[in-house]
Amino acid sequence: RILGHTVEKVWAAITEPDRIAEWLSPNHPEKTTAIDLRPGGAVQLQFMMALIPGHISALQKGQLLEISFEGGSLIRWELEKTGYQSCNLTFTSSFTEQHPLPAFLREVMVGWHGYLDFLAIILDGNAIPPFKVTAWQMVAKELFDKYQSRNPLPE
């Protein structure tokens, strides 16, 4: 995604626990996200539905953050300046040791799409509005159908 914000602002939003909580667990009563920002540092991400521990497996300040989780999954954030007040965010979620079921992959795909939308909302200075899980399920189906038309997952 191209974001209309500086690398520094986006970096803060993906590495500072209070900023992460704004978009990763909006409206969640517990703020338990923690990150020890150094190679090998412990990470605890509070999502809306789960608390997931991991560790930093790659780090280049202001450019690259990679977090590995048990079971061989990881997420990777790469930032590149594209203009005076903009940057490119390349986000990758992958699975290295286990091959999850397609239904799980669908949920991960659309879930991260939603979280990246939330990140953009927060970066723009807005709050994430409260929403119902049933509303998200409708949005998630539309997103999955788009992804499925581009790169079909087996059933």
What would your notes on this structure say?
The chain has 155 residues and is an alpha+beta fold. Helices cover 37% and strands 30% of the residues. It has helices at residues 7-15, 17-24, 102-123, 133-150, and strands spanning 2-3, 34-35, 42-46, 51-60, 64-69, 73-83, 86-95. The chain has a 7-stranded antiparallel sheet. A hairpin with a 4-residue loop joins strand 3 (42-46) and strand 4. Helix 1 packs across helix 2. The mean pLDDT is 86.
Helix and strand topology:
Layout: E1 2-3, H1 7-15, H2 17-24, E2 34-35, E3 42-46, E4 51-60, E5 64-69, E6 73-83, E7 86-95, H3 102-123, H4 133-150
Antiparallel strand pairs: 1-7, 2-3, 3-4, 4-5, 5-6, 6-7
Helix pairs in contact: 1-2, 2-3, 3-4
Compact summary:
The chain has helices spanning 7-15, 17-24, 102-123, 133-150; strands at residues 2-3, 34-35, 42-46, 51-60, 64-69, 73-83, 86-95. With 155 residues, the protein is an alpha+beta fold. It is globular.
